[in-house]
Design goal:
- By secondary structure, the protein is an alpha/beta fold.
- It has a single domain, classed as Spore Coat Polysaccharide Biosynthesis Protein SpsA, Chain A (Alpha-Beta Complex).
- The protein contains 15 helices and 12 strands.
């Protein structure tokens, strides 16, 4: 059973009673007459070939309250897109697949790119950005959720709990973040959240001084979770990163545009497992190394926009402060694992901390060397100011891909 303690500056919703998903869905069906609900699923084609997404689709097929499901499909050729149309056809809800590598959406992307309004790199951020564009164009959902397609432990109650605070007409939240425990294979997971983000947020406060923004981020139990939801009108004005800083970037934009009373987090599962990233790829890049660098840079950019003076000297102090805090936190997690009878590999944990420490220094150096980088994808409100008919064109392209010949 979860606790009901409210700490931090945002509202926490807990799973106190294990309320059946059918009861939650009954409420959501009732709410849907006033606040319609949608879902965005950013996906790689390779995920259609794995067991996680197949099970997710089976679960979603039972959901009675969704108005629309928008699926962003990356790295798919024509035959793979046709396979995807058949794969998702068992969904009874209205659903549309964005074939991001198809000729229609690529032509629109090329036109946006000429004006500097297109995502500069492929990845989840770009996929989510086009999904939000189509969701705005479709205009069928008052609230929209997003979650990943590699959740091994998925069950439809996750979605019900994620949407409930936004869909309930008596609540006035604009944004909701999911949280959960990360335990599988008899060990603690979530290394980036446990060993990088938590100690880093504490270190940023120590080095650069107290910050309401950092208090806000620290209030989230799992700021890196890929499961969040928002009122659909929020989508029009936020700028999201195109890299692994997506989750931190979204939280930062919500903080910029809304009060903390309009944000909440909800416990959507007792436990959660998905595809795990290696520390780095064989060439020393990618994996958690790249992810951690993107996350740190996202935080540094936000701190700079708030008037915090960042310097090479301060990055060295930050690195040392983080390293000490991370080792202290690692010891706490060691005790947590021991008390719960879980395995704890001190060597691999320390190796992760050392890699994250280096990532902090490298991110600081990159920030100093390229201060004029534009890491955020433009908001849809800006894109529409340059191309007033862009949403209608995206809508038409997706409709033709899904219903016509490709």
């Amino acid at each position: 059973m979860s606790d009901f303690f409210q700490n931090g500056v945002i509202t926490n919703f807990h799973n106190l009673t294990g309320r059946p998903v059918e009861d939650l869905e009954k409420d959501l069906v009732s709410f849907s007459s006033k606040r319609t609900m949608g879902l965005m699923l950013p996906s790689l084609f390779s995920e259609l070939e794995g067991p996680a997404l197949n099970h997710i689709v089976d679960e979603l097929a039972k959901v009675p309250y969704l108005e629309e499901i928008v699926i962003g499909l990356d790295r798919a050729d024509r035959d793979q897109f046709l396979f995807a149309r058949d794969f998702f056809s068992r969904l009874p809800q209205r659903h549309r697949i964005l074939w991001n590598d198809g000729p229609r959406l690529k032509a629109i992307d090329a036109e946006l790119d000429k004006e500097g309004l297109s995502p500069t790199q492929p990845g989840k951020g770009r996929n989510v950005w086009f999904c939000t564009g189509y969701t705005l164009a479709s205009d069928r959902s008052d609230c929209v959720a997003l979650h990943d397609c590699d959740i091994v432990t998925y069950e439809r109650g996750m979605l019900a709990r994620l949407l409930y605070p936004l869909a309930n007409p008596s609540f006035q939240y604009e944004f909701c973040k999911g949280f959960y425990a990360r335990v599988s294979d008899n060990k603690l997971n979530g290394r980036v959240g446990r060993l990088l983000v938590g100690p880093l947020l504490r270190s940023l406060q120590q080095v650069y001084g107290h910050s309401e923004y950092l208090d806000y981020l620290t209030s989230f139990r799992y700021p890196l979770s890929g499961e969040f939801a928002m009122r659909s009108h929020v989508l029009n004005g936020i700028k999201i990163p195109g890299d692994w800083g997506l989750e931190i970037g979204v939280l930062s934009e919500i903080y910029r545009n809304y009060t903390t009373r309009q944000s909440c987090q909800v416990e959507i599962a007792h436990n959660y497992d998905h595809k795990h990233q290696p520390l780095s790829e064989e060439d020393g890049t990618g994996g958690l190394r790249r992810m951690s660098g993107d996350i740190v840079q996202s935080l540094l950019r936000k701190m700079a926009t708030m008037g915090v003076h960042l310097s090479s000297d301060s990055f060295r102090v930050l690195k040392a402060t983080y390293y000490r805090n991370a080792l202290d936190m690692m010891e706490i997690y060691n005790h947590e694992a021991t008390m719960n009878g879980l395995k704890f590999d001190q060597h691999s944990e320390e190796a992760a901390v050392e890699m994250f420490t280096q990532a902090i220094l490298e991110a600081g150096q990159a920030f100093m060397e390229r201060p004029n980088d534009k890491p955020f994808i433009p908001s849809w409100s800006r894109v529409q100011s340059a191309f007033p008919d862009i949403l209608q064109r995206i809508y038409q392209a997706v409709e033709e891909d899904n219903e016509g010949n490709v």
